[in-house]
């Protein structure tokens, strides 16, 4: 019996003009965060994706062979997993399209951006890698805040490991013990595992049951069922555990309308920003990052790296004294001429 099946995602003529698979993946830190695994030698992206029921997952390998007009999506799994319904196939293709920004709107944005920034066109840059769902993007944006990059990677990996263990039932007893806990303890001080290294942790020849070692990123429903205390203790999230828990519960209750457009297709940027400000614990940096993941590029996620970049190019920007108090105003004035694609320009300059 076959151990995988193959799906194809046609790119279309307009998309092909601006599409480079490796650059569409390796341009934003999210591609390094679990459960994403990038194999540079074969230029293949591997990770779990949800089926149409939003519960079951399958491992897929995504590639774009030279001189072809479609992405190849190799779906791994047991025989049961391979009996994909039409809805399952559509769900997988939709998630891949979202991750790599394959849509008419994205093509339009990229071509307009290239008109105002010719260097980006020459470098075939214009797609910011994102997750299969906006919820995963939102949680990962929270994980980026106020910590080192290795800590961010460790927290993302812990969440995926948690999903795998809960799916297998191995954490059920711990979960039942902590479910009733409501008090928030101080951040756990423990030795952090080594930073996630995709090519050394997982091998590209994993097949069948071996692929189950890769846990998917938890959904809002899965995280909403956990206590904040358990989430913090199991994944060492610190204060982020409460923010993520509140986000997940808000999404499940319907009080947070977390989707790519927050309603109608024509939702304006200001309305989307207002929606995000209602999510308790999500600050300006996370909001800007989530907006960028949605496809609104007007606001640049500003952090210490942004300050360092502006100060290093102080003679060009005239902002040698940029600091935490001035960075938002500085980036607004520096990049305003590239509106509404400011964060695309900033991301391009970081590559």
TrEMBL record:
Cellular component annotations (GO), alphabetically ordered: nucleus
GO biological process, one term: base-excision repair, AP site formation
InterPro entries (alphabetical): DNA_glycosylase, Oxidative_DNA_repair_enzyme
GO MF assignments: 8-oxo-7,8-dihydroguanine DNA N-glycosylase activity
Domain of life: Eukaryota
Family annotation (PANTHER family): 8-OXOGUANINE DNA GLYCOSYLASE (PTHR10242), HHH-GPD DOMAIN-CONTAINING PROTEIN (PTHR10242:SF7)
Protein name: HhH-GPD domain-containing protein
The organism of origin for this protein: Erythroxylum novogranatense
